[in-house]
Amino acid sequence: MRWKVGQVKITKVVELETVGSTRFILPLASNEEVRKLPWLIPHFATEEGRLKMSIHSLVVETPTRRIVVDTGLGNDKEGRGVPTWNNRKGPYLETMAAAGFPPQTIDTVLCTHLHVDHVGWNTRLVDGRWLPTFPNARYLFGRTEYEHWRDHSDTEDKIAVFKDSVQPIVDAGRAELIPSDARLTEEITLLPTPGHSPGQGEVLALEGALRGQLDRGRG
Predict the structure, then answer these.
(1) CATH code at 72?
(2) What confidence score (pLDDT) does residue 212 get?
């Protein structure tokens, strides 16, 4: 899926799509409650009221930048709380390259927050080491978000995510901690959106025309 806002081009790169199994995220979203919101159907739910989940990245192209917003689950990762998210062998990088975005052509990676399904492809496993997937990119983490998970990753799954998908970026010198209202380019500004996570603050405003949470539908 591709769309355009002014001079900004946006491409959706899907890693995983499923129907159902979303009650762990939205426990009150029964089929009956979902059907009361007809605007969700058919793009976000089925006629039966089963929610659709999409885990994906958005590649945002400006006249001067090529930015990946969030990086999904990743391959070869362990310790995830959802069994099917462990040791994945998906074709995410091949899908991205086929869309015209080989990893080395990305200059910026923006993580809206540091949950498991937003940081996985920050790194890939090479000879037993976690290395930055996008070797020429700077990785933008919200300062509040990063400091929270650095100091409060106290369960096995959160420790695993930080250890294999966040800390290696810092160790490689590729991370940049930014405020939640930072301006990235002439076209793109971040808007604070705390609540879903301790420091989530990366909602893109594209040329003043797009003001919505770009990771909508992924939790």
Answers:
(1) 3.60.15.10
(2) 40
